[in-house]
Amino acid sequence: MTQETPPQAGTLLVISGISKRFRGLVAVDNVSFAVDRGTIAAVIGPNGAGKTTLFNMIAGEFAPDGGSIFFDSGKIDGLTPDQVCRRGIGRTFQIMKPFLQLTVEENVIVGGLLRRDVSGARERAHEVLRRLDLYDKRHYRAASLTLPDRKRLEVARALATDPKLLLLDEVMAGLRPTETDRIVGMLRELNRETGLTILLIEHVMRAVMALAARILVLHHGAAIAEGAPEQVVHEPAVIESYLGAETVV
Amino acid sequence: MIARLVRGLPRRALILSAILLALGLIAPFYVGDYWLTVLTLILYFAYTGQAWNIMMGFAGQLSLGHALFVGLGAYTTAALFINYGIPPWIGLIAAVAVASVCGAMMGFLAFRFRVAGVYFAILTIAFAEFARTGFDNWSYVNGSAGLFLPVAQYTHNDLWRLRGHPAMFYYVLLTATVLIFIASRIILRSRLGYYCLAIREDEQAARATGVNTFRYKMYAVMISAGMTSFAGMFYAFYYNNLFPEQVFSISRSIEIILAPLVGGVGTLGGPIFGAFVLQGLAEGLNNLLNMLGIDVPGIKQVFFGAVLLVVVIALPEGIWPWVARLIGVAERKK
Amino acid sequence: MPADIYLNVAVSGVLAGLVYGLMALGLSVIFGVVRVVNFAHGEMMAIAMYLSLLAFNLFHIDPLMMLIPCAALLFVLGYALQAGLINRFITRPEHSQFLLMVSIAIIIANTQLILFGPDSRAVQTPYSFESYQFGPLIVDADKLYGAIGALVFAAALFAFFRFTRVGTAIRACADNYTGAQVIGLNVNRLYALTFGLGCACVGAAGAILMISADVTPQFGPIATLQAFVIVITGGMGSMVGALFGGVLIGLTAAMAGLLFTPSIKAMFVYGILVVVLLFRPQGILGKRVS
Predict the structure, then answer these.
(1) Strands A197-201, A40-44: parallel, antiparallel or unpaired by DSSP?
(2) Would you report the helix, strand and coil content of chain C in percent, each value rounded to 5?
(3) Which residues of B lie closer than 8 Å to A, measured between beta carbons?
(4) How many Å separate Cα B144 from the centre of its chain?
(5) Chain B within 8 Å of A62 (Cβ-Cβ)?
(6) In 3-state terms, what secondary structure has residue A74?
(7) Which residue of chain A has the CA closest to B189?
(8) What pLDDT digit, counting tens, does each position of C27-40 carry?
(9) What are φ and ψ of residue C6, in 5° steps?
(10) How large is the ipTM?
(11) pTM (2 decimals)?
(12) Which of A98, A200, A110, A108 is nearest to A151 (CA)?
């Protein structure tokens, strides 16, 4: 059931019945979900469930075959990625894409340039880098950073664009528990201090349970559960499809 | 303003630049006519190499048909001068416009239709070849018979009409080269520069960070094309004859990119260093072969090719970054 | 103009196109599998041409007889080049690959200049001036034999890729590099083999071309460019596409030369190239490359 009228205030992102097929394979099947302003939500599901495809549609990498996406009372499905970013959605990539030959600082300045001039962007970059604890490494070439640092760089770059919504695609993947906790802490702080809305794709349940107020569970492209973490995590369909071996915090 | 430009550059780099500039300014008084032409050639390739570098080194778009813009600049200014008496500096305005529009067309077609990488490079070759065969058959510019500028023995230097002593041409080119490097530095520190570098590194990530990649690639191409057209104007008024076969030839395009490739794509010092090295190598080979009494056409180029081969295998980043680190003028980056 | 002339020019264009198609085939095979653009392609063809020239002048061997030897020799050259040098450049950026192949091209072309001088050289076989007549159609013997030779070689190569294990392995590499490695194919060796085969095509084309064309050291870049146009028009990575592209370009160039002035035909050819690059970059018969 698609919704063509703009959603009410308080809801920042509304996905209505969106679908995507790739030449016969249904990647996302009639998914609807809403994220309230100032909250943190998560999308979970086994590999191949369609999570990144969902993100890609929100971020404008490609348009949905059906349904619509509303962001901040405006329709955004069909916009290009840079237009979506300008509307206020920042994203990270599952396989990280830093500007390798540029320094950490320069990477983040590129983000800051969206809404400021060069000196303003540099200031914003420093602000963001301090928050994500990369300020001391700001003159390092991105290519020389370790994995956890690169993850935070991705987040920093997206954050520098002054987004209203931050899409994080498996940002905890490959991190040790201490590093995971560190990022979780930073994200919580960001959300609390600036009211930034965050939507994450995550496999690391530790992070999901610590951060998310609402969870959407996808399986084979369709939504099989939705709601508060404690509730979702106990639903039989979810346990069956996904949570088998994972420890739930 | 100057402070902003030089921020981040190690002191040694500034000193080196100052020394080179000083040497460049006094050179014509100390070197003979022959070496003056060599120096002029070096500056020519440093200039065009840097103009090309803006597209390639900054925005990551490989152009193998840059002779197109040289040719357009040359023919535009020459035709306006010969047919309407329009002085070259005024004609330059038209030349820059023509070249930029042509670059924009090429860029628009390429970027709209997602022609990238190797295919883009081939597209640039096709455009240049199209121009070459087109001009070859265009009677307005005398086609393959060539366009000639009136050469007279001038006793004085006419800067306005670019007629005069070779030293005048040298200083014009020296000024242009210095200006293009300053301009490049300004670009690098501007939004345009940051965005182009981002596009070069990862176009998809750039888009996700809010960069309108189409627009900025277009800017890069148009600026590069426009700057290159000045070299065309210089070419026309320095050599006084234009043949489509030569001016638009793919050999010219390859020559243009050799200096930055050998020196270091994407670096500021690369093109000029590369130009010095290549020209120096050519001269050195000439002298060596003369000394040995060998006068076989082709030997020099074989050596040349061999050197290129060695450079591309051993120093993929170009020679300049390695030298810069060696003498301590590289910008500090860990 | 009488219809005969159109027909004859068209057929002549098609026959010449087949030979150029064979040359382009080599380029297409290399790019389709190894993903490196061989900017020295034309120069390698010139090597074959000069070899055939030598064989003819010294031993009176007909260039067509040199087809196999030239192909074999260039196969070895290509294999060695790829295994020894080009392999390291596969992951390097395009401008590095370009510079590599261009320096090789410069070395080859100028070595030819040193050895053979700048003048154009040609070969005159006993059948150079013969022709066959089929009704209104007059076909030059040398072009006919050349086209047949090209077709035979191309067919043999096609059969190799289709029906042999090695050929299939190479096609697997082209389709899926990682997958090929996973199933245990020695990708490096296959790449070298492919490059060798691509150069063998060029060797064969060179030998064939020698019976009807001249060779100069400047021939290289022109031929490389022509090969590009053909491959892109016909389809990068498609063997039939390369031949088809060759015929198409040969036909277009011939007809354009007839209908307009000969020098315009180059413009037509590049015009087609631009159009293809824009609207169908995979070429008319090519498959979309990801």
Answers:
(1) parallel
(2) 75, 5, 20
(3) 189-191, 194-195, 197-198, 201-202, 204-213, 266, 332-334
(4) 24
(5) no
(6) strand
(7) A118
(8) 888 888 888 888 89
(9) -55, -50
(10) 0.89
(11) 0.87
(12) A98
